[in-house]
Amino acid sequence: LPTVATPPPPGTADNPIRLLFVRPAAVSRGAANNAAEALQTVLSESANLAVEVEIAESGADAVEALCASPGGTPAAAWVDGVTYAAAQVCADPSLAVVREDGAGADFVLIVPDDSEAVSVRDLVGVAFCRLSVDDLYTWIVPALVLQANSVSPTNLGTITDYGDLNELIDAVSSGDCAAAGINRADLESVGRGSSIRELGDAIPVPYSILMLPASIPLGVRNTLNDALLSIAGNADQAELLDPLLAQVNLVTVGEGDLDGWDSLLRRTRLNWEEMAR
Fold this sequence. Notes:
The protein is of the alpha/beta class. It is built from ten helices and eleven strands. Helices cover about 35% and strands about 25% of the residues. The strands form two sheets. The chain has a six-stranded mixed β-sheet, sandwiched between helices. Helix 4 links the parallel strand 6 and strand 7. Helix 1 crosses helix 7 and helix 4 packs across helix 9. The chain is elongated. About 40% of the residues are buried.
C-alpha cells in the first residue's frame, strides 16, 4: 500500500492555525485588518505557534471555518453568544470576553408600565419594536427568548423598526410599542424613564467566546489560550485586542459557566446543527 502522508501538526509553519475574529460593525475593515496584523505578530512570537489572524465578515463565515477544521486547515474563532449556538456543533468554548459589566450583557424585555403582560407568553399578538432585523439585542436575542417561551416571532402583531434606541424606548414608554428587547446597559445609558418596566428576569448573553475544534490538539489549544490570556493581561498588548473584542479582560470558560444560556438555546428547539451547515 502507498504511504499516506501525515499532515503537519496544527500550529506549525506548514499548518498554521487560522484565528478568526468577526469584524464589529463599528470598526472599519481597514482598522480591523490593521489590528489583526499587529496581533498576529505578537501572538505568533509569544505563543511560538504559527497563527494567521483573519477578519471574518460574519459569524457564518467563522462557523464554516470551524466546521471545516477536521481534515482541513485548523481554525479557531471568536463568536458572539448567538453564533456560539451553531459553532458548538463543531467546536468547544474555551475563553470568554469580560467587559465592565461581566462576561455577558443583561438582556431584558421591556413593556409600558401599565402593560397587562406578566410573562413572555403574554406577548402573542402585540406590537413589537426593534432597531432592525439583524440587530442582536433588539431582535435576534428577543426572537430566541420568544421561541424559548413557546411564542413564535411570527405570532407577534406588528413589528416596527426604529432609527435609534432613544426612539425605540420612547415608543415603548408612550405605548406605541407593546414590547421591545434591549441590552440593559443600553437602557440605563439612554434612560428608561418611569413609564417602562422589565418583563421577567434579565438573561445574560455572552459577549464573545473563543471556540476551538477538537482537531486542534489539547496542548496546542492550551498554548493558544495562555498566549491570549497573557496578551489581554498586559496593559500595552491588550490594546491590540480591543478593536476586535472591546474587552476589559479574558477568562477561561469553566464547566457550567454557560449552562443558563445553553438551557435557553435548547428550549428554542431550533436545529443548530442544521444551521451550522
